[in-house]
Write a structure and sequence with these properties.
The structure holds two protein chains of two kinds.
Chain A (H helix, E strand, L loop, with lengths): L3 E2 L4 E5 L4 E7 L6 E7 L6 E7 L4 E4 L2 E6 L4 E6 L8 E8 L8 E2 L3 E6 L1
Parallel strand pairs in A: 2-11
Antiparallel strand pairs in A: 1-3, 3-8, 4-5, 4-9, 6-7, 7-8, 9-10, 9-11
Chain B lengths: L4 E3 L2 E4 L5 E6 L6 E7 L6 E7 L2 E5 L7 E4 L6 E5 L8 E8 L9 E2 L3 E5 L1
Parallel strand pairs in B: 2-11
Antiparallel strand pairs in B: 1-3, 3-8, 4-5, 4-9, 5-6, 7-8, 9-10, 9-11
The chains are: A mainly beta, B mainly beta.
Amino acid sequence: DQQVKQNSPSLSVQEGRISILNCDYTNSMFDYFLWYKKYPAEGPTFLISISSIKDKNEDGRFTVFLNKSAKHLSLHIVPSQPGDSAVYFCAASVGGSQGNLIFGKGTKLSVKP
Amino acid sequence: DTGVSQNPRHKITKRGQNVTFRCDPISEHNRLYWYRQTLGQGPEFLTYFQNEAQLEKSRLLSDRFSAERPKGSFSTLEIQRTEQGDSAMYLCASSFGHHEGETQYFGPGTRLLVL
């Protein structure tokens, strides 16, 4: 039973436009959410996180939105750049990330010049 | 380089052999995690240490797997009697406590192929 779901396996966006990656979760005990970016043959690289006490967190071109009532979060990348092309993983944890992260299956983002 | 490092980066072995991987966390991080990732999946939690204590183990961690973190520094993950199903990327991550939540920083991974 998947507790963290990324329902879009892939997304293609034009350079300069907005990329929106979505993530749904089922466990209402999750209280910390993270987004990671992964290039082939490398480990995941941390992008941005959000605590359940917030509904938005921004870091440069990256913004994460959390809708607790819908158990949904999204990552917005504006403007998208070709270097953003990678697989993006959503992850969640209980207890402020003490212990294991539960990951989605990832969304492959392609940003076309 | 002050990131998480893992060795070796690649390992090819024959079924039935034992393999050992090493992870060196970011130096001030007291927590260390092992994950496994297979094709088309996100990383799956295996086990985690706080300092030298192993605090949590996933049901994915069969009795052929053992992890250690002597002296709370580097960690090793050993797989005994490897099987073809053990072929995966093995990822190590480390973190340090934060009032809002911890961010786990990952190493580059060790890709294991069992023939």
